[in-house]
Amino acid sequence: MVSNVYWFGKEQNRTVKNIFWTVFLSINLNCLAMKRMIFTALLIIVISAASFGRKLVAEGKTFTAMGNFKIETADKPLVVNGVSLDTYVITYDNSKMSVIVAIDKDKKCRRYLTLSDKLSVQYVCYGTHFGIEKLSEKYAKDGFKTSDAALNRSAYFHQKVLVQGQNDPVTCMKLIGAYYPELLNDLENVLATR
């Protein structure tokens, strides 16, 4: 009889162990599943946050007091004459001023509308050269016009032909980022805003 009780106690002990391990493993598996769900959610958040940020396209030096520049994709495209244009933002290290560059593609050329609160111009890439022009009249409907008072005429005429031949958009925007600060008459005021 005592052996039966002992045996019954061992069986009961095994059952408690089985119940304990079953509960422990199910909790552990639930924690593992929860960890996987939390990790997956964090991964999705990180990926989506990265996709909403600006994407760096290029960077370079201006060799002016404005310092280095960065070209990034804009958050929203610029709409001109009802057409959504590829839009980029150029920022400078030593100034709060940012320059918006929107690419308007024609049959003959690409126009880089270069817009800021200080000065708005357009750079044009024909098949033979890339250089600066005052904004075309077709952009006046949307409120874009070149201010002669803010324009450094000497730098403007030096930039009529920046480079000859066909160039890709990134190279053209890097040239804009490097040469645009020279066009500003009041460069000291632009630097003072930083």
What does this 3D model show about the protein?
With 194 residues, the chain is an alpha+beta fold. It folds into two domains: 1-52; 56-192, no CATH class. It is 38% helix and 26% strand. It contains four helices and nine strands, in the order αββββββββαβαα. Strands 1, 2, 3, 4, 5, 6, 7, 8 and 9 form a nine-stranded antiparallel sheet that branches. β5 and β6 form a beta hairpin. The longest helix is centred in the first third of the chain and has 51 residues, at 2-52. The protein is elongated. It starts with a helix and ends with a helix. Residues 1-9 have low confidence and may be disordered.
The overall strand count is: 9
Task: Please state the overall shape, judged from the principal axes of the Cα atoms.
Answer: elongated
Strand content: 25-35%
Summarize model confidence as the mean pLDDT. Answer: 82
Termini separation (Å)? 94 Å
What is the number of helical segments per DSSP (H or I, 4+ residues)? 4
Radius of gyration: 32 Å
* Low confidence ranges: 1-9
Quaternary structure annotation: single chain
Jot down its keywords.
alpha+beta; elongated; 2 domains; 194 residues
Short description:
This protein is α+β, with helices and mostly antiparallel strands and 194 residues long. 38% of the residues lie in helices and 26% in strands.
